[in-house]
Structures are given as C-alpha cells and as structure tokens.
Amino acid sequence: MSSLAHLIDDFPILGREINGHRLAYLDSAATTQKPTSVIKAISDYYENTNANVHRGAHTLAHEATVAYEAGRAKVADFIGAASPNEIVFTRGTSAAINLIAYGWGLRRLTPGDRIVITLQEHHSNIVPWQLIADLTGAELAYLELNDDYTVDTSMLEKVIDDRTKIVGISGMSNVTGAIGPVADVTAAARAVGAIVVMDGAQSVPHTSTAITELDVDFLAFSAHKMLGPTGIGALWGKPELLEEMSPVEGGGEMITDVGLYESRWAPVPHKFEAGTPAIAQAVGWGAAVDYLSKIGMDEVRRHEVEITKYALERMAEIPDLTVYGPTDLDKRGGAVSFELGDIHAHDLATILDEEGVAVRAGHHCAKPLMRYLEVPATARASFYIYTIEEDIDQMVKALWNARKLFGLD
Ligand code: 7TS
Questions:
Q1: Whose CA is nearest to atom 6 of ligand 1?
Q2: Contact present, 240 and 100 (Cβ < 8 Å)
Q3: What is the location of CATH 3.90.1150.10 in the chain?
Q4: pLDDT of 40-98, one tens digit each?
Q5: Rounded to an integer, what distance in angstroms lies between the CA atom of residue 34 and that of residue 386?
C-alpha cells in the first residue's frame, strides 16, 4: 500500500459509490479531485471575504485583494518564480497559450517564420499556433516521436532552423505520459534565438518545477489539474517578455488611464487581467498549492512512479491489451493510454464505469498524435496522489470482465 494512501480521507468525493461499486477515479489527467482544505478555502472566502478586488476602499475589498494576490504569490513560489508579478492569471492552460499566441506571436511573426511544436501536443498547444500561422503567414513544423513514444530529438537542429521564432513543447503528454525533452528543445531554440513556450498542464502538477532552471520563456498551467478549482490557470513569463507583450483583452482593471482614443496599460501582470478575475479560484488554488507543498513534489512524483509501475505490471497480465506510452518509468508520468483488442475505447470506458471505474475514452484533444499512433481513440487511466493499488485492481478486474463480455477469451 502506498505511503500516500492516508490522503484519501481528505477527498470527500472518493467516498462515493458509482453503480454500486466504490469509485475508482482514474481520470486525474482530465481534472483532479479536490481536498477538503481547497473546498473549505473557497467557501470560507465566499462566507467571510467576498468583494471585488483592486477597487473600493472598504475592508472587504481590501481583504479580497490581499487574498487574491496571496494566491498569486503561492503559485509563483510553487514554480520557483522570482516574483508574483511573473504570474498572469488566466482561465487555464488553453487561455495562457492563446495569450502568448495573440499577445506575442501575432505582433512578431512575419511570412516565412516558423513555429515548431511536437506531435505529442494537446490541441491547446497546436490550434492557437495554427490560428496565428494563418494570420501572420508563418509556417508550422513538427518534431516527431521515437518508437518509445518520446519526442525524437535527433532532428532538432534540422526542424528548429534559423527561421524559427517560437517553439512549443509539453512537459508531459496527457495521452502517452511521455515526459517532454524540454532542456534539449530549449537549447536548440536558444541557438536560433527562438522563444520556448512550455505547456505545463500535466508536468507542473506531477513533478517539481524550478522555472529558473528550465530556462523556458513561457510556462502555461492549470489549477484544476493540481487539486485546485476549475476556471483559473496561469501564464508564467520572463519579465522582459511579459513587459513587451501586448494585452489581448481590454476592459476594466488593466489600465492606468483611458482617453477617448487611446489608453495606458497597468503594470504586468494586471495589464493582462481585464475584468473581474477568478478571485475565489485564486484563493482555492493557493490552498491547493499549500496542500501539495506539504506533501512535497518529490514525494508526489515518487508516488506517481510507484503507482504507474504497478498499473503497467498489472495491465501487462491482460492479453490483447496494448499500452501507448514509454515503458521506462523515468521517461513517463501517470497517464496510461491503452486499447483492449478491438473493443472501442468508448465501449470499454462505459463497461468500466458500470464497475465504478472512471477512465477517459477518446482522442484526448490530441488528434495529430492519435493519427500518428494510427488509432481513432484510446482508453486512458490517469493517476494522482490519492490513487491506490485498489483502484488499479478494480480496473484490471473490470478489464478482464470486458474481455469476457466481448468474447475475447
Ligand atoms: N495541455 C495539456 C498537456 C493538457 O493535458 C490539457 C488538458 C491542456 C493543455 C488544456 O488545459 P485546460 O485546463 O486549458 O483545459 N487535458 C485534458 C485531458 O487530458 N482531458 O481533459 C483535459
């Protein structure tokens, strides 16, 4: 039994029954469950502090502003940022990458420039670049994958050529679990003066992030994949890049002055946060960061390796089951995509749900990767700190039952 098993009691939803079975929640790559401390921080905020931020001189407005900015400081600390001002709150990873695309890319790319991304990217790190390529005349190029599903770095210098202005790479794939070669890609981007945009949606929640060591230019991540609420995420950026970047949304809160025909922007990060922000969510995210920091991200990673090892071993016992992802635990996190014979992934997920097992089925917002793998869809089990061997056992038992049901025996 894992040393983190005691945490389960902190997650009220894990006490639920689904279709008469204990819930085995194996969909944490989509969103994680929330501990009581996060739920309570949000309800405490609404019960005691709620007001709008950065305006009004009354006590609640002041307290709400302090609480919101404390959330920002905790998130900054969590990734080792030098200052809370390097954290722009967004709706999530997707919004953060769109902000870079439109705030930085749109103004700097010209016809013939290149944007390089990898075949393991989530649509969030593909589609914004397609939109910007279309608007600017830049072209999109891809780094492909090795046989073990990791990103192939042998072609780095060829693909990241001197026309390249932006390189996008995910820290961890939400489909294969493969850890992205961020250091190698960053070195190649540096050599041609390109900026590096890291999609940390899966890596920040699962591994320790030291932003100064990574040396990327931008990092995007979401609260809801690391025990926090939905509706908030962050864009971390190098201060000089955030400074030169244009706001994409105009409105309240993001200006110092508004004239009839032009305006002056508030300092970073506020110039990117038009309108009333997600205040309770920032408070909840701060509580999530506190919770994870207490465990320690090295321990979070250690647990993930252990539970993934167990899952891969147990799944290997099942005939006709194919896993799409690295077998080397050093090269992967806890998202395990698989197929069972010719059972459609959606049918498989439905059968597992009947036994209380929550897995995701589909293309996982990574269609280019699916085409590369030559599968229309996969089922995916994904883990977090509260995942225990019993969850895996329950899934494995349900998979054997699915084999019987579909006549695979
Ligand atoms: N990048 C990666 C690698 C992701 O896994 C996700 C979400 C995103 C970006 C987008 O994050 P968002 O918070 O803006 O939605 N991944 C998934 C998933 O695997 N299943 O549901 C959402």
A1: 201
A2: no
A3: 5-28+296-405
A4: 999 999 999 999 998 778 999 999 999 999 999 999 999 999 999 999 999 999 999 99
A5: 10
Q: Structure tokens of 192?
A: 């041609």
Q: At which residue do the structure tokens 């056992």 appear? A: 393
Q: Catalytic residue numbers?
A: 365
Predicted confidence (pLDDT) at residue 1 exceeds the cutoff of 50: no
Q: Which of 28, 93, 125, 172 to mutate to test the pocket of ligand 1 (most atoms within 8 A of CB)?
A: 93
Question: Residues spanned by CATH 3.40.640.10 within the chain?
Answer: 39-293
101 φ/ψ angles, rounded to the nearest 5 degrees: -60, -50
**Global pTM value:** 0.98
Nearest-atom number in ligand 1 for the CA of 172 is 3
Kindly give the distance from the C-alpha atom of residue 27 to the centroid of ligand 1, in angstroms, as a whole number: 12
| H/E element, 234 | strand 233-237
Q: Which CATH architecture has domain 5-28+296-405?
A: Alpha-Beta Complex (3.90)
Q: Tell how far the Cα of 122 is from the centroid of ligand 1, in angstroms.
A: 7
Ligand 1 centroid – CA 277 distance (Å): 21
Give the CATH number of domain 39-293: 3.40.640.10
